[in-house]
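FAQ: What does a ligand-bound record look like?

Like this one, built around zinc ion:
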Amino acid sequence: MPLTGPKSMFEKAYKEGYAVGAFNVNNMEIIQGIMQAGAEEKAPLILQVSAGARKYAGQNYIVKLVEAALLETDLPVVLHLDHGPDFELCKACIDGGFTSVMIDGSHLSFEENIAVTAKVVAYAHDRNVWVEAELGRIEGVEDDVKAEKSVYTDPDQAVEFVKRTGCDSLAVAVGTSHGAYKFKGDAKLDFPRLEKISELLPGYPLVLHGASSVPQEFVEMCNKYGGRVSGARGVPEDLLRKAGALGVCKINIDTDIRLAMTASIRKYFEENPADFDPRAYLKPAREAVKGMVRHKIKNVLGCSGKA
Ligand code: G3H
Ligand code: 13P
Ligand code: ZN
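The answer part, i.e. the structure of the complex:
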């Protein structure tokens, strides 16, 4: 099965009120864990690659690993660039076979964000590639794009932005943030704002970044086996389910993958101090990714059986 674009995936998700999971991939074990979870749940999948992941693994390796995964599945799979920092990187991924790219101009002025997004859209659409953009700033730090302080998306600006850029989907800032430390006080999202954006852009797919729920079982496991991950908190799962029914068609998850892998590897090392075969600890790490992704698909995203 060749790679697919997000269009029909999102149309179905929008109509039926669920979201597709976009999972960050950095190596073979993560890709395999996600693919196995998708196969068991018969779910559509978005595999996304950040600039940092691309630097770590190399674009050729990532693309070939994903192609290998495609040889063994008939699930619809999108290969997406996450937080593309500039036109050049988006172009490199489009030229390299990605079916979707994100241009993240959220740190720029409104006009500059429009200009760079429109430039990527023109290049991408000529090649039948989907473009996600971001308006507002989602707190947290990615490798090549920094957002120190979150600025929520203005609904009227969102309409103008989509109209002027022609972007296909929009990441909105409504209270989520990247990483494992999302909320100090009550965990809450600005649902009236999300609802307003969705109302003003009917039928249009929105994207929620920073949507890991930071399962406490993994946090506790990390800490139990020598880690120091204290006070980590994510987006409660019921809030994510609610977002899925409000025009959010893509939900991004990276931190939970990191936590699942790290917790499982820490446990393995503690319990098997004499082992030094990487396969011995990467196997349970891959299983942990699979279990976590399966849970998301089934109980949070609502996309089981939607492939
Ligand atoms: O949104 C950011 C993702 O978690 C990617 O993180 O830039 O460290 O790969 P990264
Ligand atoms: P988390 O840090 O909540 O997993 O968010 C990931 C993300 O938004 C990737 O773009
Ligand atoms: Zn993100």
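Follow-up question: can I read anything off the structure? Yes, for example: The first helix runs from residue 7 to 16.
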